[in-house]
Design a protein that fits this description.
CATH class of the largest domain: Alpha Beta
Distance between the termini: 53 Å
GO molecular function, one term: pyridoxal phosphate binding
Catalytic activity: L-histidinol phosphate + 2-oxoglutarate = 3-(imidazol-4-yl)-2-oxopropyl phosphate + L-glutamate
Helix content: 25-40%
Structural class: alpha/beta
CATH superfamily of the largest domain: Type I PLP-dependent aspartate aminotransferase-like (Major domain)
GO biological process, one term: L-histidine biosynthetic process
Family: Belongs to the class-II pyridoxal-phosphate-dependent aminotransferase family. Histidinol-phosphate aminotransferase subfamily.
Number of domains: 2
Number of helices: 12
Pathway: Amino-acid biosynthesis; L-histidine biosynthesis; L-histidine from 5-phospho-alpha-D-ribose 1-diphosphate: step 7/9
Order of helices and strands: HHHEHEHEHEHEEEHHHEEHEEH
Strand order of the largest sheet: 1-7-6-5-4-2-3
Length: 352
């Protein structure tokens, strides 16, 4: 428990005073609906989903399913347009433009910095330990300034792929006086448990997840934020009235109702990840394959830029990460299907 945490001292004054837009569907979802200026003649194609009606602004059914899946209450769940909406809203709620600061731990997910720049928030950085890509808790806490509002942690980390040690995360959550955002986009590929259920113990912990990775639903853009109810209430207050559309909600519900298939495929990707890593390690142009708890492998090459360019000419697209701290000559390789991985290895063998 973080006893020094005071949520109300962190929230921007204008957000506290904000009177949110009250949408029509918050009051009534059934009946003779003539209140929202919807097109009463309906969609211009056959439609059995009532797409001429606005969606549920609170996404009650979806949030209840997510809560059941992760073992939390629906009041602890926010659904957004990818994890990026959650990140954006948390900046809006807690960070005063031109005044407040956030902390990140590079190499890490780039949207933390992009969102900070959009909101005119200063970013302080403490690099992960070079040997194992773990967060140096003491250095991070020493870097905190009076106006540091948010600490971003990504575990499993992108682009390194490793999961942070629980004791490191716990130390930071218990000792940082602001909001700790733990991005778990890749958690279902890790053997470690999610921290989502621990939000009840830590009032300053916010956990981000997504259906883009283990669920294979990147195209529907559905992100999830878990936090204590007071934080979720602020997010619901600041979000756009109908941020999740009906089609996204429907497919997200289908995915959650097929969790066994999701788990089976995540396990299959983990097995394929090991096989791909073993094959990469046998190549002369590969210097090191880092351990991964995600659906990708960070791999150090003799000349990463040249390998990237040569593969791109063959329409084999991977991600150059050599411009990130501690990632010199590194490429990030998504674990593909067995056939895709064989094609990749075959192409790499021809490069040396």
């Amino acid at each position: 428990m973080n006893r020094s945490f005071d949520l109300e001292k962190l929230v921007r004054p204008n957000i506290k005073k904000l009177v949110p837009y009250h949408s029509a569907r918050e009051d009534f979802g059934k009946g003779l609906l003539l209140d929202a200026n919807e097109n009463s003649l309906g969609a211009p194609f056959p439609d059995d989903q009532q797409l001429h009606r606005y969606p549920d602004p609170k996404q009650t059914k979806l949030r209840e399913l997510i809560a059941e899946w992760r073992g939390v209450r629906a009041q602890n769940v926010f659904t957004g347009v990818g994890s990026d909406e959650g990140i954006d809203l948390l900046y809006r709620i807690f960070c005063q433009p031109g005044q407040d600061r956030v902390l990140t731990t590079p190499p890490t997910y780039g949207m933390y910095n992009v969102s900070a720049n959009i909101h005119d928030i200063a970013v302080d950085e403490v690099l992960l330990d070079e040997e194992d890509f773990q967060p140096p808790a003491d250095k991070i806490l020493e870097a905190v300034k009076p106006n540091t509002k948010i600490l971003f942690l990504c575990s499993p980390n992108n682009p390194t792929g490793n999961t942070f040690k629980p004791e490191k995360i716990r130390t930071l959550v218990e000792n940082f006086r602001g909001i700790v955002i733990l991005d778990e986009a890749y958690i279902d590929f890790s053997d470690q448990e999610s921290w989502a259920s621990k939000i009840a113990d830590y009032p300053n912990l916010v956990v981000l997840q997504t259906l883009s990775k283990s669920f294979g639903l990147a195209g529907i853009r559905l992100g999830i934020t878990y936090a204590q109810e007071d934080i979720i209430n602020y997010m619901m207050k600041v979000k756009a009235p109908y941020n999740i559309n009906k089609l996204t909600a429907e497919k997200a519900i289908d995915g959650l109702q097929n969790w066994e298939t999701v788990q089976f495929r995540a396990d299959a990707i983990k097995k394929e990840r090991k096989q791909l890593a073993d094959k990469l390690k046998q190549l002369k142009i590969v210097h090191h394959v880092y351990e991964s708890d995600a659906n990708f492998l960070l791999t150090k090459f003799t000349d990463a830029r040249e390998v990237y360019n040569q593969l791109a000419e063959q329409y084999i697209i991977i991600r150059y990460r050599g411009d990130q701290p501690h990632c010199e000559n590194c490429l990030r390789i998504t674990v593909g299907t067995p056939d895709e991985n064989e094609r990749l290895i075959s192409a790499l063998k021809k490069l040396g």
